[in-house]
Amino acid sequence: MSASLNKGVRVLKEMIDAPIASYFSSCVHCGICAEACLFYTETGDPKYTPIHKLEPMRRIYEQEYTLLGRLAKVVGLAKAVTDAELAEWQELVYNSCTLCGRCSVVCPVGNDIVYMVRKMREGMSAAGHSPEGIKGAVTRTINIGSPMGVKLPAVKAQMKHAEADYGVPIPLDQEGVEYLVTLSSMEIINFPEYLGAIAKIMRHVGKTWTLSSEAFEATNAGMQIGNSDLARVIVSRVVAGAEKLKVKTVISPECGHAYTALRWEGANLIGRPFTFKVQHIVEVLEEFRAAGLLKLEGMATDRLTFHDPCQLARRGGVIQPQRNLMKMVAKDFVEMPDAGFMNWCCGGGGGASSIEEGEELRLEAFKRKKRQLDAVKPDRLVTACANCRIVLEEGLEHYKMNLPVVGLTETIAEHIPDAE
Amino acid sequence: MTITNDKEFKAALAVLDNCTRRQATAYLIRQALDLTPDSRVRAGLDLAVRCDANEAELAVAAAGVNSARVASYTQCGHDANWTCQASHFVARAAQECVKPEISASGAWEAAMQARMARICQSIAAGEGTSNREAEAQYRALDDYLKAKGSAS
Questions:
Q1: B77 and A148 in contact by Cβ < 8 A?
Q2: How many C-beta atoms lie closer than 10 Å to residue A414's C-beta?
Q3: How far is Cα A316 from Cα A301, in angstroms, rounded to an integer?
Q4: Largest CB tally within 10 Å, which of A222, A374, B41, B63?
Q5: What percent of chain B stands above pLDDT 70?
């Protein structure tokens, strides 16, 4: 069925489950969520107040599921949600929300606003009001299996390149190994060194691993657009690949939403427990460190800081492992203000970076990150999300900040003794 | 000496002084200039082959090359255009050449980025993993070193 207002409103009604209803009914309109959202703090525009981004869905909730709202609707006092209104809200639900979750964790009544925005996106998508950039990613995911149109020959080319660069073989479709390594499209296209770094680290720690020709891609565009069916399809591909190869652990790449989709929502999406464990690459590296398997050499003497990807730190609870790893390689590791659980988003998560028309707003929001960085004046910025990395680089370039951005996995691999 | 593999290639780059290494690396990266339309990258490499380039000139060139590199990233969720991506990797390669000091590992890194650019071109052409840039780089470095040797 094609997208339409009727379909969108129907889906929004269906999305209003018990948590959503309780969230709307318990909102006290305090506005604290506004101060947690970088799109509000950096623009001062009240339309970017997170709970306001849900206003069309709140009205549907009121008119359909509350007594007074129903009465108002019966006597013609309720204002129905219109197509023009949903079109206007597209910017609020997609461009100015990165699903970073800061609003959710400051809400005094415990409303998970990210959960609500994702439900809202389901209705927006059904109504045809999702950004072209994200729609394109979804179409490519359905047709090709990758939101950025990456096919297996490209992955094989990158494998060959990484093998030559790092001098380490990269296994494909090896059955019975410990780890299945998945990649994000961003890593395949922009950061092939990630794959080489993984190969180098795995050899160093003596672990068996593989890529899968059927499940190399972990990026989940379904999560970003708000389409559970698609999110399920993408997760199912990884599950099928992992089960076929009988691996013990699937490693989620340096990609925020890939991790959330697979680690926290994957089993619910497919309706059964996984037969394997899911870990972010940072968690795996931390296990290697804790077990004494990472025997690194040399310490960076320049000043390093770490940008916590929202989905890893705030939504996923992985905060200390990256710091333990940083301290293995950095003599001068400094924390930005608000680092860790309350870190500010890069401004491009949740699909926002794929929305071209949202670029100006993203750069405005980046002023928050600029202030965080200005406070500690690092020489290098390390992160663990390929999307964060590019959004950060664009912001730094825009504000003429000469600050290299590097991935954590590559940074660790650089300190593995060359003799290997 | 004829370079036939990566080990010899790395060794040849490692023994060069800073200026010669920068010139040689820039010469290698120029082999891939057909893959980028960006004039900032070309200007950076033109400067890199000059031994008299001073730090201020290199800093200006580095800023231009960095802008070209950042601008040519493929954004998350965008359709991968491997031809454009080739341009990105040429810019990444050029970035190493406009640093005041280029280490042997930096020169190797630049060479690998140029090879990556050629891989992107082969992916765009549907040729998968075919990539002869390594051999082309061996020949180019050989030619450069021979020319340098006969000139000195």
A1: yes
A2: 17
A3: 30
A4: B41
A5: 95
| Interface test mutation site (partner A, options B55, B76, B121, max chain A beta carbons within 10 A) | B76
How does pLDDT run across A2-39, given as a tens digit for each residue?
Answer: 679 999 999 999 999 999 999 999 999 999 999 999 99
pLDDT digits (tens, 9 = 90+) for B77-88: 888 899 999 999
Question: What sign has the CA pseudo-torsion B124, A222, A229, A125?
Answer: negative
Rounded Cα distance between A218 and A220, Å, is: 6
Asked whether the beta carbons of residue A156 and residue B116 sit closer than 8 angstroms, the reply is: no
> Which of A140, A165, A189 lies nearest to residue B85, judging by beta carbons?
A189
Given an 8 Å threshold on Cβ–Cβ distance, is B80 in contact with A192?
Answer: no
Give tens-digit pLDDT for A81-117: 999 999 999 999 999 999 999 999 999 999 999 999 9
Instruction: Count how many Cα atoms sit within 13 Å of the Cα of residue B145 in the half-sphere of its side chain.
Output: 20
Q: Which residues of A104-128 are buried (b: 16+ CB within 10 A; e: fewer)?
A: bbbbeeebbbbbbbbbbbbbbbbbb
Candidate from B79, B82, B134 with C-beta closest to A136: B79
Residues 6+ apart with CB under 8 A from A40: A34, A46, A48, A49, A50
pLDDT of residue B31: 92
pLDDT tens readout for residues A128-148: 999 988 888 888 887 887 888
